[in-house]
Amino acid sequence: MTAKHCIIHGKVQGVFYRDWTVETARSHDLTGWVRNLSDGTVEAHLEGDAQSVARMIEAMEHGPPRAEPTRIEAQDAEPQDHEGFERR
After folding, report:
1. CA–CA gap between residue 58 and residue 37 (Å, rounded)
2. pTM for the full predicted model
3. For residue 12, how far is the Cα from the chain centroid?
4. Is 26 an annotated catalytic residue?
5. How far is 62 from 70, CA to CA, in rounded Å?
6. What are the φ/ψ torsions at residue 81 (nearest 5 degrees)?
7. What is the crossing angle of helices 50-60 and 17-27, to 10°?
8. Residue-wise pLDDT tens digits, 51-79
9. How many CB atoms lie within 10 A of CB 54?
């Protein structure tokens, strides 16, 4: 089990980035959550096997069609044993 805490910078609010993240994370069998932060970034906690987490972070570099992510800060995190992936 791998866990990553991510902060996504760029045009990621108001472009369905969180909904896309939920759908995409579930398709990769990941658990965790995603939420908007007041500074315009998006924060996410991803848990799953290492390859799936890495593929998800790679997908998040592009996001949904209207998003324009510029940078993702991804750090190792402690697993929180979530039972699904949710939007907060």
Report:
1. 21
2. 0.96
3. 11
4. no
5. 9
6. 55, 50
7. 150
8. 999 999 999 999 999 999 999 999 999 99
9. 16
